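General statements about sequence and structure are easier to judge against a single worked case. No coordinates are needed to read the tokens, only the vocabulary itself. The sequence in question and its structure tokens are set out directly beneath this paragraph.
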Amino acid sequence: MRRASLGAASAALLIAAGLVIVDRKVGLEALLTTATQLGTMLSVLPPVFVLIGLLDAWVDRDRVTSLLGESAGASGAIIALVLGSLAAGPVYAAFPAAAVLLGKGSTLANALVFVGAWSTTKLPLLLFEASAMGWKITLARLAVDVPGVLAIAWLTAKMVPSASTCR
């Protein structure tokens, strides 16, 4: 996985550097933006991995399995939705957290609901959206997003063989 991450970062930097040849101004702007984003990501990831390590060490496998595992049913999806909505941080921090949940006994569908909720229903962003655009638009978006996240998670879990998840 580290090779893929380094490859993607290298590719982004190479593409931005290549743009310098085609259009100097746009290329330099792209290079600066890429470097800034990589720096931001690298400054956020170490604390995220510390928190993920603590989650892995402190949260009991049986607890996760009972709340988010096969026997949890619909309540597992609701718990995953609430956990994802209460989370803070960039969406790329959700993936290591979801991997820990999978390793602790969560179903793939509930891990995907967690990631989907993290990316679309974070409470602080909902409050900001409601203050900027109004509750009517915010609630309309949620009315589409929540069933969409649940449906995509369920369909993806049905299509992916269980042996391919990181348990």
